[in-house]
Amino acid sequence: MAQKQQAQSIETEGELTSSPAADEVTATAAPDTEAPSTETTVEDQTAPVVEKKRVKKKGRLVSVDEILPKPSYWPVFLAFAVAALLFGCVSNPYMLGVGIILVIVAVLGWTLERR
């Protein structure tokens, strides 16, 4: 019965307020428990993080000749090889085999070409 009166006195118009009786009840409810320690240990402390400023490195200027690839005939050879491959699909299996071999040679030649 006393608990109902305390609950009613604590709750007024939907807002909770504290009363001395409620504080006494919670204080006497667990006398054997200890309060958490407020001491800090070495593990709790972290070293401050120091961020380094990013420094923009000065690079050397590159010319257009260094960026662009050198002229090559391999793309033209690959175009003819694909045309032979497609013609082989339509005409006969021997031409198809020749087209496959030409495409492989053209792709390998273009990828292994030195600058």
Order of helices and strands: HEEHHHH
Tell me the overall shape.
elongated
The structure class reads mainly alpha
Largest sheet: 2 strands, antiparallel
Describe the structure.
With 115 residues, the chain is mainly α. Among the domains are: 1-27, no CATH class; 70-111. Helix content is 51%, strand content 3%. The protein has helices at 2-10, 20-29, 64-67, 74-90, 93-111; strands at residues 11-12, 15-16. A two-stranded antiparallel sheet has the order 1-2. Strand 1 (11-12) and strand 2 (15-16) form a beta hairpin. The termini are far apart. The model has no long low-confidence stretch (mean pLDDT 75).
Q: What's a concise summary of this model?
A:
Its main location: membrane. By secondary structure, the protein is mostly helical. It has helices spanning about 1-10, 20-30, 65, 75-90, 95-110, and strands at about 10, 15.
Write the layout of secondary structure elements.
Layout: H1 2-10, E1 11-12, E2 15-16, H2 20-29, H3 64-67, H4 74-90, H5 93-111
Antiparallel strand pairs: 1-2
Helix pairs in contact: 4-5
Features:
EC 7.1.1.9, elongated, 115 residues, single chain, mainly alpha, two-stranded antiparallel ribbon, 2 strands
